[in-house]
Each structure stands twice: as structure tokens, then as C-alpha cells.
Design goal:
By secondary structure, the chain is an alpha/beta fold. It is built from eight helices and seven strands.
Length: 271
């Protein structure tokens, strides 16, 4: 038997990186997984890979910053697999830049996905889980949500918001008697595409940051993952499965007494 047998899950940003790793790991443990993303090609491939390996999965396009999409995604998941038991709010973007030069447009764009999307997903999950016996909400933050990093002020703010919002949601659900647990996960230097997609563009045109390590020693992933591994006490960069294993634990009944906390998976960076 799998650790997540009978559970239905949604994983946002599931087309690549940590989201893909989480979706595959959860399906391997018996969960039926709805993979959502804006990258339809890779998202469909992840769902197909899970199905090919005997798991249950489907894919839906989702912009997590679109409020109208959330009830539709939850509704489609319930219709396909049954009551929602696990939500992994993983979708996120990273935009780097010095604070003095950072645009309000980029600030709002980053928060729309990293924080607003987490809020709306958590809200929708609570609305449905409270009527079906509870569940687990797992919000993916970052070590950059625990410590400040030069060149990542906006990103740190959004991920720090995820951490404290998760704690507030956990206490609120517990006191309401909803049997819904809410926790945050904080990856350190993980070899994923997010920095190649977003941060590189934000830093490439910023001369003041071009030759720095962007505060990575204070807890942010970066473009040259191999070089950055030298700053990790364990001496290696993490891989998506390292985070996925933590997510599986928080999704399972093994963590039934864990809520309102942060699971830091960073190789010792924040120690």
C-alpha cells in the first residue's frame, strides 16, 4: 500500500522542477494527482508519464493568479477523482533586481503568483476540505522566505508572506475544527528551471548585481547551481525529489500532528 492511497491532490506549477517531482512522488505513493501549470506541453507530459507508470493523473491549464480559475480547477479535480485531500501550492516565479531599481510592475507580478495564488488556492481548498473531512495544504515557500538576500528583495517578500500566511491559516483551520493542516516548505539551493526562466533575465541587465552571488549564501537558488553547491554545508545542490519527499510526508497521515510549521530542506544553508 502507498502512503497516499485514496487521497486526491492538486499540484500547481507541476510541469517541471519541484512541482513535477512532487506530482510524480505523490502518484507513486497512491494519490490521484491533478497537475496544473501554464506550460501545457510539459504539463501534459507529466500527467502522461504518471499514467504510463500506472498512476492516476490529469492535467489542466491554470494561471494561479486568476481568481476565477480556482473554483474550476477544484471542481474538475473533484469530478475526475473525488474529494480533494491535498493541495500543493507550488507555482511560483522569481524576478531578481536591486530594490532601488525594481519596478512596481515586477513587484506586483511576482506577488500575484507567489502570494496571491497561494492565498486563493488555500482559500478554495479550505472551502471544500472543511465539508469533506479535512486535508493537508502545503505551500511551497523558500529559504529566501526565512532570510534576506541581496538582489531578491521582492522574491524574499513574497516567500516570507507565504510562510506567515500558512501559519495564520493553520491556526484558523485548527480553531475552527476543520481538520485541515497547513504547512510551508522551504527549499534551499535546488537544481530547477525557475532561475533560468526568470531570475537570469532580471539580473542580466543589472550591472550592480551582475558580478555578485545575489545573496545566495543567505538562502536563494541561483543560475550556476554547481558553483553554489560550495556554499551548502552538505556540499551538494538538492534535486526536486529531495523536496518531493518532504511534501509526501506532509501530505500523508504520518504528519497528522504537524500544522503551522515550516519544513526547511536546504542542506544546512540556514543552520
Amino acid at each position: 500500500m502507498g502512503r497516499l492511497d485514496g487521497k486526491v491532490a492538486i499540484v500547481t506549477g507541476g510541469a517541471s522542477g519541484i512541482g513535477k517531482g512532487a506530482a510524480i512522488a505523490m502518484a507513486e505513493e497512491g494519490a490521484a494527482v491533478m497537475v496544473t501549470d501554464v506550460d501545457d506541453l510539459q504539463g501534459e507530459e507529466v500527467a502522461a508519464e504518471i499514467q504510463k507508470n500506472g498512476g492516476k493523473a490529469a492535467y489542466r491549464h491554470q494561471d494561479t493568479s486568476d481568481e476565477t480559475a480556482w473554483p474550476e480547477i477544484v471542481g474538475a479535480t473533484v469530478a475526475a477523482f473525488g474529494p480533494l485531500a491535498v493541495l500543493v501550492n507550488n507555482a511560483g516565479i522569481a524576478i531578481g533586481g536591486a530594490i532601488e531599481d525594481f519596478s512596481l510592475e515586477d513587484w506586483r507580478k511576482q506577488n500575484a503568483v507567489n502570494l496571491d495564488g497561494v492565498f486563493m488556492g488555500t482559500r478554495e481548498a479550505i472551502r471544500t476540505m472543511k465539508t469533506t473531512g479535512g486535508g493537508s495544504i502545503i505551500n511551497v515557500s523558500s529559504v529566501a522566505g526565512l532570510r534576506g538576500s541581496a538582489g531578491l528583495g521582492g522574491y524574499c517578500a513574497s516567500k516570507g508572506g507565504v510562510r506567515l500566511f500558512s501559519k495564520a491559516a493553520a491556526v484558523e483551520c485548527a480553531r475552527a475544527g476543520y481538520k485541515i493542516r497547513v504547512n510551508s516548505v522551504h527549499p534551499g539551493i535546488i537544481d530547477t528551471p525557475i532561475w533560468q526562466k526568470s531570475v537570469q533575465d532580471g539580473w542580466a541587465n543589472d550591472e550592480a548585481l551582475a558580478n555578485t552571488n545575489f545573496g545566495v549564501r543567505d538562502g536563494a537558488n541561483q543560475i550556476d547551481v554547481d558553483a553554489l553547491a560550495e556554499s551548502v554545508p552538505l556540499g551538494i545542490a538538492g534535486v526536486p525529489k529531495d523536496i518531493a519527499d518532504g511534501i509526501v510526508f506532509l501530505a500523508s497521515d504520518e504528519s497528522r500532528y504537524v500544522t503551522g510549521t515550516e519544513l526547511v530542506i536546504d542542506g544546512g544553508v540556514s543552520a
